[in-house]
Amino acid sequence: MRVNHSRSGNVTSRVVIGRRREAVPAPRSRLLRRLGRADRWAFDWVAAARLRGLEYVLPRLSRFADHGVLWFTSAGVMGLTGRPRLRRAALRGSIAIAVASPAVNILGKQAFRRKRPVVDLVPPIRIRWKLPTSHAFPSGHSASAGAFATGVALEAPRPVAVPVAAAAVAVAFSRVYTGAHYPGDVLAGFGIGALAGLGTRLVWSARTPVAAVGRSEERAKVADDGRGLVVVVNDGSGTGGEAAGISLPGRPEVALGQLRRELPAAEIVRLGPDADFDKAFGEAAERADVLAVVGGDGTVNAAAGAALAHDVPLLVVPGGTFDHFARALGVESAAQAIAAYRSGRLGRVDVAYVAPVSGAAGRDEQRPFLNTASFGAYTELVDRRERLEKRIGKWPALAVAAVRTLRHSEPVELQVDGRRRRVWLAFVGNGVFASRGAVPTWRARLDDGRLDVRMIVTGRRVPRVRAVAAILAGHLHVTPGYRAWRTGGLEIVSPDGELRLARDGEVSSMPPAIRFGKHAQALAVFHPAAG
Description:
Elements: E1 2-5, E2 12-17, E3 20-25, H1 27-48, H2 54-64, H3 69-80, H4 84-112, H5 140-153, H6 158-177, H7 183-199, E4 214-219, E5 229-234, H8 251-262, E6 267-271, H9 277-287, E7 290-295, H10 297-310, E8 314-318, H11 324-329, H12 334-343, E9 345-356, E10 367-369, E11 372-376, H13 377-392, H14 394-408, E12 412-416, E13 419-430, E14 451-457, H15 464-473, E15 482-487, E16 490-493, E17 499-503, E18 506-510, E19 513-526
């Protein structure tokens, strides 16, 4: 006689055969047991493996990864390179670890409480340090490795991302090889870390490495020794440490040395702080086959105006503090600029401009910008920073200026395309910026023919804390009074008189009525090969 008894939700069913009763595992329990057996078999297989040369390497690598030391050291090295993409990669990877590590070590291990493997089969040479006593599932080392590698992969170029990923896989494998974890612990931890790395994109979008430019069939007149190239250098760009007593070669000086070695026939023009930049660039463009500029975004702005007026291609060599336009082109060093010059490869980019309403049709009265123009609180911040930076340095001056702007800045009464608004902060971008927030930071194309307008308008309450945070961070998109739209032109009227305007970080006074517009694909620039 055979009797089956079952109840909804029971883990097992009772099977009665005569007088003997046997417990039959439910399907889920059988699956877990099979996975457990497979996990233990895989652990035993790795324990029995003999990998020549790795008996000494993997235990030390595992030890170096304790407490994230390996990854935070790597992040520090990437930060010291000075390359923006590597700095972003290091920051994103570190943020991912900060999310994944507590999730695994505090929540995951306490929830599952799995015991560590028995290490009888692991050769003693691999167990050179005291085995951990915490719970095994998931693996904290593997979570940190997966988080950092994923964060770096979202930002860094392939020659950096691939070695970091290989190191992360090696650390994860070492946790099994040294007897600290079962393979299942490692896979779960690595997966959680990878999800944490991908999750950083929810609050901080991964940046497009290089913005696209318009295609151009023209080839620049270039020479291997730089003949016909006129290089204008702003000696004051990228400074900021002198006030703190630091005497180091600035970025323009380093770039200039490399240009002289690689392109000895190029003409070099050096500009001091009191030089007339527009006149100097105009004269250089008149006699140049190619006009090159070494400096920050404000200097590049002046060079672009001269190149546009004299119809010569522009070579941008980064030498400032931020170098937004050079980075958008994919040029992060003098070596990359020299390689782009020698290739003769040109692309076309948009040039935005601002001009008095009465003279908007004449190019002589148009003032170009390649990145952004801004008015409101940002111009006050720049004015205050410039007054302070010679005494205390650029970065301390920026911090002090931000605090003072936060306390004292007031909104400006303006008419924006005929509509009256109280504007506390406004940016007009040359092209559509993909980053969210009050301050545009990067874009996917340099030839889209659009203006990206972002404003913080106010009622009675000025959203100062959040707005200044948006200026400094560039990623805060939840700001009271925030407005954004795309357009081909914009007209601003200030009833109270002249308007202070910053173009690519350089502040000047404008007439009360101004108009923003675009010259689509007007400027020829050198750019590196795609990919």
